[in-house]
Design a protein that fits this description.
about 800 residues, Agglutinin, subunit A, Hepatocyte Growth Factor, 6 domains, about 25% strand, globular, binds 2-acetamido-2-deoxy-beta-D-glucopyranose, kinase, Bulb-type_lectin_dom_sf, transmembrane
């Protein structure tokens, strides 16, 4: 008897061990899905979606819905769209999803606790099905929906899933951690869709811009209902008038999801049929540090394309918790000081701290703002900026929160610190930085006690037997997994491509660009690398299309370069809107610049001194961003007037990154380049003498361009010596001689200034410009200022 029982069990084990193929189309009352059986998965009719137990840590699982088409090979790589128990993962043993005959759907942990339930009931019969749209629906025999996952989203909204007054998207905690995070996308009390940072201590709305009225942000607060949805073509519409189209609008076979990511940005992702990688086809905010709460109190968020996002403490403050930046920074100085004469201010360039102003100092000088701030014990410092109406404003801060340094922000911050501290420490930002968003390990160990089951010999044997079989299976699964993860690693390289779209530009087809430029008919420029044509995109944007000479560059290399340039985001750098890499065609699509290049403008004498000064400042800002936003990561290597373009307001944008060098910080010691880059007349001596190349080569070229702008003389041609002599002299020597040989300090600038200005200029400013330019063109690269220092020197007189 015992033997028969035993053999039957063995038999059934052998039959049921190869679980993997037993997926379900639907679950009916009285049945269950078990965490221990990887095959216990509910799939949608065309298997686009699956629902089952998804690993969120060691021995920790959540019941989830994920995209299962195309197959994601390893479960951890599948894209999850919904979770039942994101904050209460269940154990990897004996946990089950049970559909009771009474109609209640429950999730049990280790066979003991109910961690989640729909609390529905219906007699006589119920069924659970996952439909092709990714909606898990519990319905009764009459087809009435009792519960559906679309009504309780986590961080993702799928096409045709409505967002209503009862639903909110809440981000995950961090990359790889699916627990409830701090960012929310929801209909606010005034019926407007907003993004909210809802942190442990405070909360604040950061999108749409809070200083705008809803109507200014294009939203309407007066609705009859709250409803938003994205359709299957990629058209998002909302009752508050927010609407946008996916960049790939129109195709309904593309998979899409609108997700609020753990970094606080709301992104629409798209995935073409059969592709593994998701592409961002729309996003709510384009500046990575704009979301609130990324770094805690007293810290600054910075973003660089190569380093990602980083937090760093404001001067005078130190990190509270190295492992979690949301704790922010705490004072490093003695906070018990009270007397106003004990404090001074430290200047923080181009920084912004949002909110927590206790008043506004309207039309006050820097000195007056300082005095006011010193008088208030609670004043941590103040934001000081020009408000555009001819008046400076100060915003005294009770707290330093939401700090960041936007690339095109013109305000400064003055931090109040004790004099004793400042004299002790050098004025530099604390170097502590931790990269946010680095991948966390997938590990949590759940501590749940188990009730030891009653064992008998047979079961024990069976268990051993199963373990042995399981062991074999695990070994083979492990081998397969090894192979697959190799493949996955290779694929990750390709995934970089998705970053492309993150900055809002896209890949275009050759035909599209051929149409836009009317078959490349209107040439507007020509350079070593290719010809530039004017064109108009189908959406009406005017563009400059650069058609590179037929490829001696492979597609991967080209894409890598495009990727770098596409991530640049600064008002003084040319913006790339798209690109095309098709067969042998390589094209780049830029915004069209009304006034062409600085070279043309100088030739036609259309620039007065104010424009020249602003151009000098703008270029310096653009280059400073390239060099220092992320600690010297891009060298332009070809700064010259032909590569500085001017928009309709004569705002300069540095362009042509064809020769630029992306510095890999890990290879910084090996600063050798295969060939000389640049244009004669603008090239730093390092190139010629084969010395190490640093960002100072751009500083040198920039200095030459400034001398050219001031003097109107072309550095590529020698300057004829009129006063008694033959031969030529280069621009730098000429300017230096004029300076040193001048009879009085007042006259030398007059002698070198472009005659076409006819004496209309601000002498002080021009002197500064020339002085800075001469510093920039010093032989010794270490003696040249950095681009940031140049910006500071040019900004100073405007105060
Ligand atoms: C499932 O796939 C078939 C064949 O590709 C298609 O005709 C059908 O419309 C799909 N069903 C759904 C619900 O998308
Ligand atoms: C996710 O973050 C939460 C909150 O910090 C933490 O309690 C939980 O253990 C984390 N989960 C994982 C898988 O790391
Ligand atoms: C998007 O959907 C809205 C509402 O249905 C509609 O009014 C609008 O025309 C659609 N946009 C496009 C481009 O189809
Ligand atoms: C730092 O943060 C981690 C994660 O939130 C926490 O476990 C740890 O206790 C914190 N350490 C201190 C010193 O606060
Ligand atoms: C700003 O203050 C100065 C000096 O107090 C005053 O002359 C000027 O008119 C003020 N400007 C405005 C716009 O209030
Ligand atoms: C997380 O990963 C790091 C580096 O891979 C490793 O040193 C560490 O032990 C891991 N932590 C846990 C809890 O597994």
């Amino acid at each position: 008897m015992d033997f028969l029982y035993f053999s039957l069990l063995v038999l059934s084990l052998i039959v049921f061990l190869p679980f993997s193929s037993s997926t379900y189309q639907k679950l009916s009352g009285g049945s269950s899905l078990s965490v221990e059986n990887p095959g216990d998965v509910l799939i949608s009719p065309n298997s686009t979606f699956s629902a089952g137990f998804y690993p969120v840590g060691n021995y920790a699982y959540a019941f989830a819905i994920w995209f299962s088409k195309p197959s994601c090979l390893v479960l951890q790589h599948c894209t999850v769209v919904w979770m039942a128990n994101r904050d209460h993962p269940v154990n990897g043993q004996r946990s089950k999803l049970l559909l009771l005959r009474t109609g209640n759907l429950i999730l049990t942990d280790a066979g003991q606790f109910n961690v989640w339930a729909t609390d529905t009931s219906s007699l006589p019969s119920v069924q659970l099905q996952l439909n092709e749209y990714g909606n898990l629906v519990l319905s009764n025999s009459e087809g009435i929906t009792l519960w559906q996952s679309f009504d309780s989203p986590t961080d993702t909204l799928l096409p045709l899933q409505p967002l209503t007054r009862h639903t909110t998207l809440v981000s995950a905690r961090r990359n790889g951690n699916y627990s409830t995070g701090f960012y929310k996308f929801f209909f606010d009390d005034d019926n407007v869709l907003r993004l909210l940072f809802d942190g442990p201590e405070i909360s604040s709305v950061y999108w749409p811009n809070v200083w705008l009225l809803s109507s200014q942000a294009g939203r309407s607060a007066y609705n009859s209902r709250r409803n938003a949805m994205i359709d299957s073509f990629g058209n998002f519409t909302s009752s508050d008038d927010l609407s946008f189209l996916s960049a790939d609008y129109g195709a309904n076979w593309i998979q899409r999801r609108l997700t609020i990511d753990y970094d606080g940005n709301l992104r629409l992702y798209s995935r073409e049929e059969g592709k593994q990688t998701w592409v961002v086809s729309w996003q709510a905010i384009s500046q990575p540090c704009r979301a609130h709460g990324l770094c805690g109190e007293n810290s600054l968020c910075r973003y660089g394309p190569s380093t990602g996002r980083k937090c760093s403490c404001v001067q005078g403050y130190k990190t509270k918790n190295q492992t979690d930046w949301s704790y922010g920074c705490e004072p490093e100085f003695d906070v018990s000081l009270n007397a106003r004469h004990e404090y001074t201010f430290v200047h923080l360039r181009n920084a912004e701290f949002y909110g927590y102003d206790y008043e506004v100092f309207y039309n006050k000088t820097l000195k007056e703002c300082e005095t006011e701030c010193l008088q208030r014990v609670g004043c941590k410092g103040f934001q000081y900026k020009f408000n555009g109406n001819g008046v400076y404003e100060g915003f005294p801060k009770a707290l330093l929160r939401n700090g960041h340094q936007p690339p095109n922000f013109d305000g400064d911050v003055y931090i109040k610190l004790p004099k004793s501290y400042v004299s002790l420490k050098k004025e530099e930002l604390s170097k502590e930085t931790i990269s946010l968003g680095c991948r966390q390990n997938y590990t949590i160990n759940l501590e749940r006690s188990y009730v030891e089951g009653q064992e008998n010999g047979v079961v024990k044997f069976m268990l051993w037997f199963a373990c042995a079989l399981g062991g074999i299976e695990i070994v083979s699964i492990f081998l397969v997994w090894l192979l697959l993860s190799r493949a996955q690693q290779e694929e990750n390289v390709a995934k970089e491509g998705y970053l492309l779209a993150a900055t809002g530009f896209k890949r275009m087809t050759f035909d599209e660009l051929k149409n836009a430029t009317k078959n490349f008919s209107q040439e507007i420029g020509r350079g070593g690398a290719g010809i530039v044509y004017k064109g108009v995109l189908s959406d009406g944007r005017v563009v400059a299309v650069k058609r590179l000479n037929e490829a001696n560059q492979g597609e991967a290399e080209f894409l890598a370069e495009v990727n770098t340039i596409g991530k640049l985001n600064h008002m003084n750098l040319i913006e790339m809107w798209g690109f095309c890499a098709e067969k042998k065609h390589r094209l780049l699509v830029y915004e069209y610049m009304e006034h062409g290049s600085l070279a043309e403008m100088l030739d036609s004498h259309q620039l007065d001194w104010e424009k020249r000064y602003d151009i000098a400042l703008g270029c310096a800002k653009g280059l400073a961003y390239l060099h220092e936003e992320c600690l010297e990561w891009i060298l332009h290597c070809d700064v010259k007037p032909q590569n500085i373009l001017l928009d309709s307001g004569y705002r300069p944008k540095v362009s042509d990154f064809g020769l630029s060098v992306l510095l890999d910080r890990s290879k910084l010691s090996n600063r050798s380049f295969p060939k000389i880059r640049g244009t004669r007349g603008y090239m730093a001596p390092e190139w010629v003498f084969n010395r190490p190349i640093t960002s100072k080569v751009d500083v040198y070229s920039y200095g030459i361009v400034m001398l050219e702008m001031v003097s109107g003389k072309n550095p590529r041609k020698g300057i004829e010596l009129i006063e008694g002599g033959k031969g030529e002299m280069d621009l730098i020597t000429w300017v230096k001689e004029k300076k040193e040989g001048a009879e009085s300090k007042e006259t030398w600038v007059e002698e070198i200034i472009d005659r076409t200005l006819e004496g209309n200029y601000d002498k002080k400013k021009m002197e500064i410009l020339v002085a800075v330019a001469l510093d920039c063109v010093q032989e010794d690269r270490d003696a040249r200022p950095t681009m940031t220092q140049v910006v500071e020197r040019l900004l100073r007189p405007t105060h």
